[in-house]
Amino acid sequence: MTTLARLQAELGSIVSVHPAELTAMRADKSGWVAAGMPLAVVHAQTVEHVQAVLRIASAGGVPVVTRGAGTGLAGGACGTDGSIVLSVAGMNRILEIRAEDELAVVEPGVINQDLNDALAAHGLWFAPDPASKAISSIGGNIATNAGGLLCVKYGVTREAVLALTVVLADGSLLKTGHRTVKGVTGYDLTALLTGSEGTLGVIVEATVRVRAVTPGAVVTIGAVFPDVRTAAAASAAVTAARVRPAVMELIDPVALALIVDYLGPTGAAGLSLGSGAFLLLQTDGPAALAEAEHAAVVLRAAGGEVRQSTDVVSGERLLAIRRAAHPALAAHGEVLIEDVSVPRSRMAEMFEKIAEISARAGVPIPTVAHAGDGNLHPNFIIPGDPLRLPGDPLVPEHIWAAADELFRAAIDLGGTLTGEHGVGVLKRRWLGEELGATSLGLQRQIKAVFDPQGILNPGTMFEAVPSA
Ligand SMILES: Cc1cc2nc3c(=O)[nH]c(=O)nc-3n(C[C@H](O)[C@H](O)[C@H](O)COP(=O)(O)OP(=O)(O)OC[C@H]3O[C@@H](n4cnc5c(N)ncnc54)[C@H](O)[C@@H]3O)c2cc1C
């Protein structure tokens, strides 16, 4: 019996071979579209469904691409030719909220915001906050170790994962981690699986750490600087002054000009955005006001024109400037959102590198940054091309060449290829450069231990090894 026939015989109507659906599964939100056509999409509803898919795929040696909400920006959830796309989006039940232990147990398809809505009734929240939190799944957040605006203070997803239940390549079930606050028994497989991008197993349940909603007011600061170097230096000065904002975001002049076009010159925040760079800070908790005042002094000393707001409405207006970044860019074409990180003290240099690369390549690179943690998103806008056929690559080679320079610049500055989006398919060619031969070799061996046949997301994270 073929693999498809076995899937259909064992799993019935949750297996789809509808051409429109198969086509949709070839893309995520990165703009990358996998060549060819997946074999089938399986809409798993239960752990047993996932186990059956993995058993059947193992027996046939057929690749399995796990998919959450499909909002990834690295091409990791795209159904490749002949693969089974295993969608866990339908496994979306919140199984338990244990307020006294500050934890929640969820199926992988639960949308991040839905968990937060459910937690609010208990005065709790789940801190990882990717900008995609309204549309991305907790399983996907864990598989990519997603970050967000608040992770400068509240940590990235890894810090919020206590335990996982994972289906391995052969269909067996692995449980990792613990429900306790502490726990150091054995190797930390929970941390290894967090950020493994579907290459080591399929997360079917997660126990996540939740925290009490932060008491006190939120104070928001918007500051305009004459140029991005000054703004980057100012954000580093805030960190050096030991102020710990919950949000610290930077917008460079190229991105700010597009936002000004989109929102109007004051950005509706009573602050003249002009042609400089914009820094947004939020402080929270009982010391929010004192911390904001301290930060404002640092920002003014660094050359910023500063607006401070303690009321929700004007704070939201300042935040709206940052939120407008993606739509303002997307109004001009498809956006390739890049993602590199550098030590915070070297952010100003990274912005200089970006300007040089932009000038050399002759393409604008509007950049926003989670400045509090040195994570930059240089963006490329790719105008619509009426001659582009479905399945044609979205990103032209000269853009990849500029991106290549960006990645190398970040690594040279002691940074990393990806702060939060993952390696996926799109960054695997640079993996060895950052990791070095010893780490890359060891990581390939770890992959082989979990997945000896190499059926889990082949092509994600690692390039195929040339056959001897
Ligand atoms: C507008 C926009 C804003 C974004 N902002 C951010 C941001 O601020 N921070 C950030 O980090 N990311 C951001 N992203 C990227 C994306 O939303 C995150 O990477 C998110 O964590 C992906 O979740 P998903 O459910 O969509 O996963 P998918 O896209 O479905 O999958 C992503 C990867 O995880 C694997 N995977 C998914 N579910 C599982 C599972 N259950 N078990 C094993 N592997 C699995 C897939 O195989 C794939 O490799 C943004 C994306 C968009 C479109």
What is this structure's SSE topology?
Layout: H1 3-11, E1 15-16, H2 19-24, E2 40-43, H3 47-60, E3 64-67, E4 84-87, E5 94-98, E6 103-106, H4 112-120, E7 124-125, H5 138-144, H6 151-154, E8 161-167, E9 173-177, H7 189-193, E10 202-209, E11 211-212, E12 219-225, H8 228-240, E13 247-251, H9 253-263, E14 277-283, H10 288-301, E15 305-309, H11 312-323, H12 325-330, E16 334-337, E17 340-341, H13 347-361, E18 367-370, E19 375-382, H14 397-412, H15 431-450
Parallel strand pairs: 2-4, 3-4
Antiparallel strand pairs: 1-2, 5-6, 6-10, 7-11, 8-9, 8-10, 12-14, 12-15, 13-14, 13-18, 16-19, 17-19, 18-19
Bound molecules: flavin-adenine dinucleotide.
Quick overview:
It is built from 15 helices and 19 strands.
Q: What does this molecule look like?
A:
The protein is of the alpha+beta class and 468 residues long. The chain has 15 helices and 19 strands. The protein has helices at residues 3-11, 19-24, 47-60, 112-120, 138-144, 151-154, 189-193, 228-240, 253-263, 288-301, 312-323, 325-330, 347-361, 397-412, 431-450, and strands spanning 15-16, 40-43, 64-67, 84-87, 94-98, 103-106, 124-125, 161-167, 173-177, 202-209, 211-212, 219-225, 247-251, 277-283, 305-309, 334-337, 340-341, 367-370, 375-382. The strands form four sheets. Strands 12, 13, 14, 15, 16, 17, 18 and 19 form an eight-stranded antiparallel β-sheet that branches. A five-stranded antiparallel β-sheet has the order 5-6-10-8-9. A hairpin with a 5-residue loop joins β8 (161-167) and β9 (173-177). α1 runs antiparallel to α3, α8 (228-240) packs antiparallel against α13 (347-361) and α13 (347-361) runs antiparallel to α14. The protein is globular and about 70 Å long. The model has no long low-confidence stretch (mean pLDDT 94). It binds flavin-adenine dinucleotide. Flavin-adenine dinucleotide binds next to β3, α5 and β10.
